[in-house]
Specification:
The chain is of the alpha/beta class. It is built from 8 helices and 5 strands; from the N terminus they run E-H-H-H-E-H-E-H-E-H-E-H-H. A 5-stranded parallel β-sheet has the order 3-2-1-4-5, with helices on both faces.
Length: 199
Amino acid sequence: MNVATTAVLALHWQHNVIHPDGLFGPMLAGPVATSGVVERARSFHDRARELGVTIVFTRFTIPVGNGALVTNTDFMRMVAAAAEQFRPESWGAALAQDIGAQDDDLVSDNQRLSGLAACDLPAHLLDRDVDTLLITGVATNLTVEQTARHGTDLGFHVHVVSDCVTAADEATHTASLGNLGLASEPVLTAAEALARLQG
């Protein structure tokens, strides 16, 4: 794995997703805290950054006018109903401080479940000659799985970092990782990903 052509996609580490007071806090904040995933992901991001890997944080936001939001599922209709909580400048849309985003990291906003959909991020990555993506984020069965499948279809080599993602419950998390083991490149632990980057 080449440091120069690899990027970490850090998906939806936002207050709305992982903080108890966020929109999805009642569903996800508890499992996120219990799993310790924030600390592991931050450590992985820090180590990858030190090696020279590009770090990209994606945010789900809804600008005034709704941007590229599509409301073709119950889930997205529910999100659209809470649009004010997802305004780009809102507390809910902000990255959680504990995840340790740095000024030199890239931040990409969009209005789709896949962090690569309806935005210029794929083109930006290709302009940087990135061909491999390491994915962290919440939740495993939502933005992580959707982005991994999408990235694979776009031609990227996509590895989900298994101990840097989580879901509302362990069974869902495990099933999603099992799916991704077939639909994308092999799922890796943070230690395995870092070893490949250093190898």
